[in-house]
């Protein structure tokens, strides 16, 4: 119910074939009108589904075993929910009801204050959006600070990386945000160690992280997009992402403070969810967004939202800016204590 942005329905046309691995979480929505779909399941000759009976009859000695021993041998193939054997190290007992029993050495830490839904989204996708972090007054002050210092905005080069899809004019940015004359620096300084961000960075990369850089992106209509970049391949220390002993480890994170509403029609930030776990180099057509195969996801946000994403491990970029209203987002980079 709360994972709508993680679920994607594949649009299929007559004659299309969809192939997915059994390990992919999947399902089917209810049919709203008559449709025809033929589904086949293939398995390796080494695989055997639970409940699949063996062809050979059990040896005679199986009948002489205890129920606990037969639960281990299971010569006729197991039911979908296999029997459960429990042991304290001295005795063995057979549970009346089948199921799954798999003890863990770890216990969920109730004091960690980590939201399970956020942790799952972060680990799966490599980014996380926090809704409504900035209030209306803070948003107004931040936008006014940019307006009052528009003469300091510098236009950089085209970041489209040769793409026709992402092509446009140079990207305007405002730097030196913390050095702006008062009161214009204060709205940006509030972002540096905001509780909502610090709370997440602590469990994403561990304490001791350090601020590295900041700029406000102020794209106007026609500003180029940014070709996709970063990712786990080739392997680099700064681009690592590891989960071990219940903790996530990474070396570089970007935090994007959204100052105005943004939709896919407007342009802006895009990423390839899950690319921080990719083990194959990204193709040229994907970098330029000329052929994405549906991998590239635009992240829609409202003014006041904050996006946190893996700066070096997740592949990301931006679509060209198409809106008549200027793009306004403050991008701040942090690195772990290992790099700081």
What do these coordinates show?
The mean pLDDT is 88. A hairpin with a 4-residue loop joins β1 and β2. The protein has a domain of 220 residues: Jelly Rolls, CATH 2.60.120.620. By secondary structure, it is of the alpha+beta class. The longest helix has 13 residues. It is 15% helix and 19% strand. It contains 6 helices and 15 strands. The strands form 4 sheets. The protein has a 7-stranded antiparallel β-sheet with strand order 3-13-10-15-6-5-4. A 4-stranded antiparallel β-sheet has the order 7-14-11-12, with no helix packed on it. The protein has a two-stranded antiparallel ribbon with strand order 1-2.
What integer value in Å does the Rg equal?
26 Å
CATH topology of the domain at 116-335: Jelly Rolls
Low-pLDDT segments, ≥5 res: none
**CATH architecture assignment of the domain at 116-335:** Sandwich
- The helix count comes to 6
Percent of sequence in beta strands: 15-25%
Q: What is the count of β-strands? A: 15
- Portion of residues within helices: 10-25%
Reading side by side through the largest sheet, how are the strands ordered? 3-13-10-15-6-5-4
| Major beta-sheet overview | 7 strands, antiparallel
| Straight-line N-to-C gap | 40 Å
Mean pLDDT: 88
From N to C, what is the helix and strand string?
HEEHEHEEHHEEEEEEHEEEE
Coarse shape: globular
- What would you give as the CATH superfamily of the domain at 116-335? q2cbj1_9rhob like domain
For this structure, what is the CATH class of the domain at 116-335?
Mainly Beta
**Could you say which structural class the secondary elements and strand pairing correspond to?**
alpha+beta
